[in-house]
Amino acid sequence: MFFLPDNEQPGVYARRFSKDRKEVKDSEYNNIWIDIFEKYPEDDKKFFWSFAVAYYNPKNKSKSVICIEPTYYVSGYFSKRYPAGYPMSAIMAAEPKGKPFSDMTDAEKYAVDHKNFAPFVASLKTWLKKQ
């Protein structure tokens, strides 16, 4: 979330905004983000999620790592739907000002995930073929 200063990046505390690091409820979570967006009104807000997977084959000691960082955007509106455990899906979209993930159909979400995770799948397939 490059629109936030380094000292305000949520990092591993994305669900624990309070000073005591107590986890916030889904319904509270988006209100916190609404306040953040008011504090930082830039139009070009992006979210970057970092995923890393390490593979290891103990038989031949083969190993590999892949890291991907799909980019997401602030949706054009904040959805009233809060899927349990995924509150950011009510404010995140696959494209700038797009439809929030929580309002997408399963097919729309699959298409986004398929595109974003294609590098991981390709890397895993390549690694498995070498085993």
What does the secondary structure layout of this molecule look like, with pairings?
Layout: H1 26-39, E1 46-48, E2 51-57, E3 62-68, E4 71-74, E5 92-93, H2 106-129
Antiparallel strand pairs: 1-4, 2-3, 4-5
Task: Describe the overall structure.
This protein has a single domain (6-129), classed as Maf protein. It has helices spanning 26-39, 106-129; strands at 46-48, 51-57, 62-68, 71-74, 92-93. The chain contains 2 helices and 5 strands, in the order H-E-E-E-E-E-H. The N and C termini lie far apart (37 Å). It is globular, with a radius of gyration of 17 Å. Helices cover 29% and strands 18% of the residues. The strands form 2 sheets. Strands 1-4-5 form a 3-stranded antiparallel beta sheet, with no helix packed on it. A two-stranded antiparallel ribbon has the order 2-3. With 131 residues, the protein is α+β, with helices and mostly antiparallel strands. The longest helix has 24 residues, at 106-129.
